Amino acid sequence: MDTRCFTVLFLLIIHIIPAFGQAVAEGLSCQEHQQAFESSCYEFVALQHSFLSAQSWCERGGGHLVFIQNDETQQFLQKHLQPEQNWWIGLAPAFDDLTLELQSIWLDGSDVMYSNWLSESILNTGCGYIDTDSGFHWKTSNCSKEFYFICEFELGHSVSCMNHNPILQCGSDQVIEIDESIYGRKTPHYCRNSMPASLTASQEQCSWVNVLDLVTEQCNGRQLCLAVTDTSYFGEPCPGLGSYLLVEYHCKDKASGVIVKRNQPQGPSPVEWKCVPTPVNRIHVDTICQNCKTEAFGVQILLKDKQNCDKLDWYLEEKSATGGLNECPAGQIKLKLQKHNSKQLSIKTAELKPFEEDFILEAICIKDNNSKIFTIPFSLLNRTTNQLLSRVSDQLFQMTETNITQELREKLLSNICAAFNNSNPIQQSIEVQMVANALKNIVEVEEELNTNAQLQAGCILVNIGHALNFNDLTQYNVTELMDAATLIIQCSSHVLAAFQRTKEEEIADYMFSAVESVQKFLLSNKGPDEEPVIINSNHISVSAYRVSPGNVHTQYFNIQNVSSSTFSLPNLGPDVLPVNEPVDVRQSNFYINPWIEDENVNSVITGFSLARNGSDIPVADLTEEIEIFIPRLDKGANSTVLDLRNYSTMIINVATPNINLVFKLDPTEDLNLLVLLGYQVYPTTENYAAKVILPQEGNTQEERYTWIVSPRETALNTGDYYLLIRPIVAAGVKSVNASVTITSIGARCTFRAETSASNWRDSGCRVGPKTTEAFTHCLCTHLTVFGSSFFVMPNTVDPSQSAQLFANFANNPVVVCFIGAIFLVYILTATWARRKDLQDKAKVKVTVLEDNDPLAEYRYLLKISTGHRIGSSTSSQVIVTLQGTEGESAPHHLNDPEKPVFERGGVDLFLLTTPYSLGELQSIRLWHDNTGDHPAWYVNTVMVQDMQTDQKWHFLCSSWLAVDIEECTVDKVFPVATEMDLKGFSNLFFMKTTTDFCDGHIWYSVVSRPPSSNFTRVQRVSCCFSILLCSMLTSIMFYGIPTDPSEQTMDLGQIQLTWSQVIIGIQSSIIVFPVNLLIVGIFRHARPRKKTTKQKKHKLPEPLQMEKDFEQNNVTIHFLIKDIQRISYLFANAMRCSVPKKVIHCEKADIITLLSELQNLIEEQHFKHKNEASSVFWTYIHHLYKQLENVEGEVKLLGPSGFSRPGCYSQVLLQVQSIKKLLESNFSSRPINELRTGSSNPKKDRRGGLPWWFVYVGWFLVLATSVVSGYFTMLYGLKYGKDRSISWIISIVMSFTESLFFTQPVKVLCFAIFFALVVKNVNYDDAELVEKICKKTTTSTDGLDGVRLAKRDCANHYYQPPPSTDLEKMRSNMVKQQKARALIMEILVFLGFLWMLLLVAYGQRDPNAYYLTQHIRQSFSNGTGESMNQNDVFTWAKSVLLSNLFGQYPGFITDGNSKLVGSARLRQVRVRTGSCEIAKSMQNSVPDCNAPYSWENEDMGSYGPGWDQSGFVNGSEDIITAWQYQSQSELRSYPIWGMIALYRGGGYAVDLGSDLQNASRKLQYLLNSTWLDKYTRAVFAEFTVYNANVNLFCIVTLILESTAVGAFEFRSVVQSIRLYQSTGGFQSFLMASQAFYLLFIIYYMFLQAKQLKRHKWAYFKNKWNLLDLAIIILSWSALSVFIKRTVQGDKDIAYYQKNKDQFPSFNDTAIADATLGYLMAFLVLLASVKLWHLLRLNPKLRLITSSLQRAWNELSSFTVVIFIVFLAYALTCNLIFGGKLYSYKTVPEAFLTIFSLQLGIFNYDEVVDSDPLLAVLIVTTCVVFITFVILTLFVSVILEAFSEEQQNHQPSEEEEIVNLILMKILSLFGIKCKKREADDKETLPSESTT
What does the alpha-carbon distance between residue 460 and residue 420 come to, in Å, rounded to a whole number? Predict the structure, then answer.
C-alpha cells in the first residue's frame, strides 16, 4: 500500500468523526443516512444494482446484505422500505454457480432458521429479495436483475475485501478488544464482485489463516482502528478467488490512570516517569533494524549496550499529552520507562507515534549510575500506513473532546498534502468523495484557517480535483464523484472566505486550478445543448455547458438562482469556433476578490472561457464586442431631482481617479438637454471639462439619456465636479416647467489577462450605456477573468437652493412636518422635565431625625437605597439601630415630614446622632410596623458614614421586609459587607446596571434621573434632542448610498456587514458623537451657580424661631417626667441592663422617684464597671452629665410655679445637682480621654469641574447642532421626494426603536458584565454631594436659655419590633387577602378564557351547514326504499343521482347554487367467491355461499368486464378501473362506517365524468356488464359540492349496502367544511379571538408548570390539575389539527385546480375538520366542568360536593348492582326480541332501550305486538324492581349523606376568603362589618407597646 491509501484512510476517519461523536454515547454509531436497530446499522440504498453489485456496495463499508434472523428484524425493515420496489437481502444459493436452483443460505454460509417466503415452491430459484407488493414476503429471482438493496453493518463485526480497510470503532471512554480475526476465505459469497468466472478449481485452493495476533497488536486498546487488508504481511491463502479479512471484536471500558506492563522487572523498580533537561548534543545510538522493508508490519529497532554496565534502564521520550505525570517545565522533556534491568532494548515502530520527529532515548547504567541520551533518527522508522493512521486516529479523537486549534488544523492539512505529493492519484470514486468530505470538515470553520493552512488546503483541492478526471465514469460512481465535485467547490468557498491577504496569489492559483478541474469533470459525458450543470456555494458558483457551435451566439450564459454575471457572445465564426464539434462553455463566479490590489474591484469576480476537447479556445481581438453584465454585491442608487425652471447644478465628489462617470437622466418629458461638466468650478458654455447634448442615439429611452464620461476622453481627477443641466428651448421661452432625475455612477470594467498578473487592466473593455445601480455593463473584445469597480457618489445638497427646495413643500411636506413634530415633542417633553426637576430639588436633602438626642454630638450619615422591584416602596414606619464594637445606638424612626421616603428606586439620606462613637460598625438592624396600604419594603443597600472620620460601612441587604414575601419577616439584622462581598459579581453587576440605566444612559435617565445629579432632566432631554437630530442628518446623508461591495463580508448570522458599511458607521459616529459627548460632558461636570441672598438683621431664622416657640410652650411637668424617663431608658439601653419598673410605668411615678431610680442605676453601674477600663460607662457618663445639666435648665425654665406642691421645685433641683456631683466624683475616680465631639477635622475642598457659566456654552451647542441638523435634514428630505422621504422616515424610526430598546440595553448589560468580571471597581464616591448637602443641614440649635428639648417619645409602639404573635396575625391576614385577590383574578381570567373558547369553537361552525346538509340528503334520498335490488340501484342512479348531480346550469347540481367540484365517483366493495362454507346436506342444492362483508372476506382481485377471471380489459382508463381493485391510498379515501359494517376505503371505482351524457353512458355500460352482482356488498356514490352563498364545501357519500340477503339499504354521510376563510370584521374578530385563546393557553401552561414544580408528583393527585392538563393537551392538539386541516385543504384545492375533470378527494380534510370539531366539543365540555371548581366558593355547592364524597362508597356499590340488573334485563330482551325488533337486535342497543325505559322513553306497543305475555311480565318487573326499589335506595343514600354533611360541616379557608371578599365589597359602599373590625383589632399591634 502506498501513501495515497494512507491519505484516504486518514480522511475517512475525519469523515466519520461527526457521526461518531454524536452516537458513541449509546454504544452504537450509525451515520446520518443509516437506521439503528438492536446491534446493527441498516442502510436502505435506493439504487438499482444486481445482487453481486449490491453486496460489493455493502462490503465497501465493512458490511453485507441484510440477514433477517427473526420477525422483529423483518418488522423493522418493513417500516423503512419504499413501496412498489423490490429489495435485495443476503440470501444466495448454497452452490457457487448462481444459475443453478438449489437451497438458499445466508451469505455467511449459515442456514435459514427464520423465513418469510411467499410460497414454498419457489425457494430455490436464485437470490433472495423482499417483494413489497406481496405483503413484504421473500421471493427469489435471477441474481443479475437490478433491485434496491439493504446493507447491514453489525457492531463488533467487520468484513473487508482487498483494498478496502475496515473501520473498527468504540464509544467514548471505551477501547477495542479483538475476539477473532481470520484472513482468507470461509464462504464463497463474500467479496464476489471481482471473482473469476470459473470458481470450482479456485475454490479448492482456498484456505484461511488466523491473524488474531497481528490485528490485536494493531487495534487493541484503541478507540478507533483501521485494520489494513494487505497481502504483504498476511500472505495470500486464496490466490484464485482472493481473500478477505474478517474481524470480530467488542468494546470495553478504558482503564483510567493504571499503567500495565507485560513483563514486571525483578528487583527494585525505578520511577515510571521523569523529566530531564533537553540535551544540546545528542549521541546517535547504534541500532539494528529487523525486517525494515517498506511495507513491513511490526518493525523493530534493537538498541544494544556497548558500555561495561551490569544492566541498563531504558527511558523513551513520551510525545502524548496524557500520562501519570504533569507536563514538564519549559526546557525539559518527559521520559517514560521502557525496560528495567536489561542490556538491550527492542522498540516496535508502531509505538512511535509522532509523524516527522526524532526520538530521545536515555540509557542509565546501573553499575555507576551514569546516563547517556541518544537520538533515534526519524529516517530509520519506515512505518506502514496503518501505523501512521493509528497516530492520526488518536489525534482526531482528541479533537472530538476539545476544540481544534489553528495549529492542529494546519498540521493535519500539511500531512495530507505531503501524502498526496508522494503518491499516485486516487483511483476509486468513493475515496475521492470521502477525502473531499473530510476536507470540508476541517476547513468549514473559516476563522481557524491561517495562511499556511489555506495553502495546504489548496494543495489538497488541486489533487482531489485532478482525481475527479482520473476516474472512469460508470453508473455506480458518477453520483459519488458529483458529490465530491460539490464538496470541492464548498471547500474552495471556505478557503476563499478565510483569506488573510498574504500569499493570495498562490492560494488563488490553487483555487482556480481546482475549479477548472471541477468544470472539466462536469463536462464529462455531457451531450450538446443539454441543461447546464451548476454548483453553488456561499462564495463561489460554477457552471458548465456543452453547446453546439451554432447556438453559442444565440443565448445568454449565466448561472441561475444566484447573483451571476451574464455573457452574450457575438457570432464568432469558424475562425474561432469549430464547425462540427461542440463547444464547452465554462463560467465561474467569485463573490470575494481573491487578489488584493491598489485599486478597488467591487463586484462579482467572474471567469468565462470556451474550450474544445478539453483545450481552451482563445478569444481575443474581436471585431464585434462581447456584452457582459457584472452584478454589484450591494444594490442601491443615488438619485437627485433637479428643477429645470432655473439653471440647475449638481455637485459630484470623485474620490477615485480615472473612472468612468455614468450619468443617467430621466426627464419628466422629452427635452433636448445641454449637459456641462466642470471641475471644481461651475461650468459655462465656454469653460467646461466635458459637454454633451442629450438625447443621443440609442435603442431605448434610458440609453438615449445616458452620458458616459470616459477617462480616455476626459481626464478625471479626484475632487468636486459640477454638473450643469440646461434645457434647449426655442427663442423667447424663458423657462420649462419640468424636472429631471439624475443618477450618478462611477464604474470601470477591468480584467486579468492571467490569474497571476499583478494588476487589473481595462484595455479592450469599456463601460456600456446599460450600466445601472445593480449591474455594470461591460463591452469587451476578449474573454478572461472580469471585474468591475463601482462608486456611487455621496448624497449632496446645495444650501444655496434652499428657496427652490422649500418651494416644493406642498408636494413633499413629509420630512419638514416630521422635523417640526420632533421640535414640538421636545418642547412638551422639556416642559414636563422642568416640572420634574423642581420636584427633585425638594428630594435632595439630608433628613435630621426628629428623635435624635439634642445633646448627642457624634453624627452618622445613613444612605438607604430602596430597590427597583415592583412594590418596593413602603408606607410603614421604619426603625433602625446601629451595632458597633463600642456599643449600640438607640432605635431611631426614619421619617421626614417634608417629603416622602423609601419610594421605589429612591435614595434617602438621614443624619443620626449618638452620644459617643460606636466604634467599628458590625451590623445594622431594620424593622417596620407593617402599617399603611403597602407595608412591604424591599431594601437594596445601606451605607453608613462616620461624619467625624469619613469612614464608611456598606450593608448589602437586597431583602424584603414583609410578612408575606420571601423570609416573611419585618425585622432583620444585616452584617457589614466585606471587601469580597462588595467586589462580588452580583453586587457589581447590579450596581453598574442600575447606575448606567438611571444616570449614565442619556435616554433612560430622562425618566429615572437621580434627584441629586447636577445634570437636570431638561438638559438630558435637550441632549437627546440634539443626538436624535444629528443622527437623522447622518442617516439621510448616506441614505440610499450603496455600500462598497467589498471583497469580504463579515457574516454575523443573519447580519452581514461590508467594509463600506463599517466606514459609513465610523463617519456617522465622527459626525454625531464628539460634539454631543462634549455637550453631555459640559452639562454633567459644570458646577451649579452659587446663589447669594441678603439676610435681614435682628430676625431669627424661621427654624430657630419655631424651636424657641416650641420650648416656651411645651416645658411642663409631664414633659419633664418624659425627659427623665427617656434619659433613664437610654442610659439603661447603653449599659445593656434592664430598665427599672418605676421608670417604665410613668403613670405611677413622680419626678423625685424617677431621679432616685436614675441615681441608683448610676451607682449600680458604677460599681459594676469600676474595674473595667474599656467599659462604655466611662464614656457615657459625660453625655449623661450634659443631659442632667439640660434637665436642670428645664427645671429652672419651668420654675416653682410649674410644680403642684410647694418645695418640690427646690427638692428636684437639689436632687439633680446631687446626681451631677455623683457623676463629677466618677470623673475624678478614673481619668479618661477627651470625648470626641461633633466637630470634624478640616476637609480638603473636593470641588472640581467646569465653571458654572459653561452651561451656557452647552446650551449654545445644543441650539446650534439642533437647528443645523434639522435644517439640513429638511433640505435633504425636500430633495429626495415624497416616496423616498417616507421610506427614510420608516427606516430611521425602525432603527431608532431597535437601538433604544435592544442594542443599547444589551450594550449596557455587556459593559456591566465586563465591569463586574474584569474591572471590579467599587465606586461609591459621593462624598462631594454629601458634603454639599450636609453644609445646608442644621443638626440642632441652642434652645431658650441654653436648654435643648428632646422630641423623642419612647412610648411609641414602633420603637419595639412587632411581637411574633402580631406578625403571625398580620401574615395570616395578608395571605388571606392575597388568596382573595388570586381567586378573583382566577375567576376573571377563566371567564375570559371560556369566552374566547366559545368564540373559537362556534367560529368553526356555521348554522347554514345544517340546512345545506339536510338539503343534500333530501335531494338524493328520493327514490330509495328500505329494500332495493340491483336494478333498483341502477334505476335510482339514473333518475335521482344523475338528475341531481347535473342540473340546469352547467357545473352545478340541481339546486343551481351548489357547484359540483370535479366529478362524482361510484365505488363498490365485494366479497370473494366462496367466502363461506355450505352445510354438507345443502351442498347439492346451493351452488355457492357468499358471506357478509368483512375485511377478511373482501375481494381485492383484478378482473375483466363482467368479472371475467382473465383480467383482460380493452377500453379507456375509466373502464379499466371499474374492474380492477384499487387500494384506499390510490383512491385517496378512508374507511367509512355503514349501518352494517365498517367498509375499507378501497374498491372498484369509476369516475362518472363532468357532464350528464358521459355519466349516463358509463352507468349504462356498468349495467350491461353486470357491474353489480351477488358479491357486491356496498355501493358508494361520492362527490363534493361548493356553495358560494354560504362559503361551504359539502363532502357527500351516499351508501347503498347489502347484508348478503340481496337487498340494499340507503344511507347518506354528509359533512360540511369551510376551506376559504370569510372576509370582513367578524373574521378579523375571530382571528383575534384565536390569538387571545392561544395566549390564555400559554398562560395556563405557565401556571401548571409552576404547580408541577412546587408539588412534584403530588400534582397528579389533584383532579382539577388533571382537568387543566387535559384542557392544555386538547388545546394544542386542536391547534395542530387546525394547521393540518388548513394545509391539507390547500393541497386538496390545488389538486382540484390541476385536475378539474377528475374526482377530487377531500377525505383527509374532512377527517381533520371532524377531528377538530370533536376536540373543540370536548374542550368546551371540560371547560364547562371547570366551572364547578370555580363555584366551589358557594357553600351550598361545597355541601353537595362533600355529600357526594361522603356517600361515594355506598353509591359505588349500588352502581354495580344497578348495572348488573340492567345488564340482566338487556341480555334477556336481546335473546327474546333480538330477532324481531330493531331496538333489541344487539346487546348494546337492548341495554340502551332498557335504560331509556327508566326515563319514560319506551315503545311499549312494539313489544306487546311481538309477544304480549312476556312483554307485560318483563316490563312490569323491570319498572318495579329497578325504579321503585333500587333507584329509591340509591337516592336515599345521597339524602342521608347530605343530612350528615349538614350537621358536621366545617367552614373551610376558602369560605373565610369569600367572607373577606364580601367584606371588602361592602366596605366600598360604606357598610360596616363587625367581624372585620374585630379582626382588624386583632391584627394591628397595640399602640401601648413600649
Answer: 7
Mean pLDDT of the 1198-1223 span: 75
Residue 1063 CB neighbours (<10 A)? 13
User: What mean pLDDT is predicted for residues 738-754?
Assistant: 80
Q: pLDDT tens across 1736-1749, in order?
A: 666 666 677 777 77
Angle at 1029 between CA 1023 and CA 1035, to 5 degrees: 135
Quote the CA–CA distance of 568 and 554 in Å, as a whole number: 8
Please count the other Cβ atoms lying within 10 Å of the Cβ belonging to residue 1163: 13
CA 1063 to chain centroid, in Å, comes to: 32
Whether the model pTM is above 0.90:
no
Decide: helix, strand or coil at residue 943: strand
C-beta separation of 1137 from 1149 below 8 A: no
Q: How far is CA 68 from the centre of its chain?
A: 42
Reported as a single tens digit per residue, the pLDDT across 1729-1787 is: 887 777 666 666 667 777 777 777 777 777 788 888 888 888 888 888 877 787 887 88
Residues contacting residue 1364 through CB under 8 Å, at least 6 positions apart = none
Q: For residue 1134, give the C-alpha cell.
A: 447603653
DSSP secondary structure code for residue 1526 in this structure: B
Q: What gap in Å lies between CA 387 and CA 297, rounded to an integer?
A: 9
> CA-CA distance, 38 to 57, in Å (whole number)?
22
> DSSP letters along 1037-1079, please?
HHTTPPPP--S--EEETTEEE-HHHHHHHHHHHHHHHHHHHHH
- 547: Cβ contacts below 8 Å, ≥ 6 apart: 528, 529, 555, 582, 583, 585
Residue pair 4/434 in contact (Cβ under 8 Å)? The answer is no
DSSP state letters, 1468-1503 = EEEB-TT-SPPPGGGTTT-----PPP-TTTB---B-
Work out the angle between the directed axes of helices 1304-1314 and 985-995 (0-180°, nearest 10).
Answer: 140
Bigger pLDDT: 944 or 1763?
944
Pairing state between β 86-88 and 147-154: parallel
Query: Which cell is 340 given?
Result: 528495567
Q: At what angle do helices 429-443 and 3-23 cross, to 10 degrees?
A: 60
**CB neighbour list of residue 561: distance below 8 Å, 6 or more residues apart:** 534, 536
504-522 vs 451-470: helix crossing angle, rounded to 10: 20
Which long-range contacts (C-beta less than 8 Å, at least 24 apart) are formed by 1013-1016? 1014/1083, 1014/1084, 1014/1086, 1014/1087, 1014/1088, 1015/1080, 1015/1083, 1015/1084, 1016/833, 1016/837, 1016/1083
Report residue 941 CA to chain centroid gap: 37
Q: Model confidence over 687-714: pLDDT tens digits?
A: 888 888 888 888 888 888 898 888 877 7
Task: Give pLDDT, residue 88.
Answer: 92
**Average pLDDT for 843-847:** 78
Q: Cβ neighbours of residue 156 under 8 Å, at least 6 residues apart?
A: 39, 179, 248, 249, 250, 251
Instruction: Please say whether the beta carbons of 29 and 171 come within 8 A.
Output: yes
Nearest to 743 by CA among 647, 806, 667, 687: 667
> Could you tell me the pLDDT band of residue 195, with boundaries at 50, 70 and 90?
very low
Q: What is the CA radius of gyration of the chain?
A: 50
Return the closest-CA partner of residue 314 out of 256, 255, 258, 374: 374
DSSP 8-state assignment for residue 280:
S
- Residue 577 dihedral angles phi and psi, to the nearest 5°: -100, 145
CA distance 1376 to 1876: 13
Inter-residue contact 1727 to 1393 (CB < 8 Å): yes
Find the distance separating the first CA and the last CA of the chain, reported in whole Å. Answer: 100
- Is 1352 within 8 Å of 1113 (Cβ atoms)? no
Residues 1249 and 1259: their CA atoms lie apart, in Å, by 17
DSSP code at position 1663: H
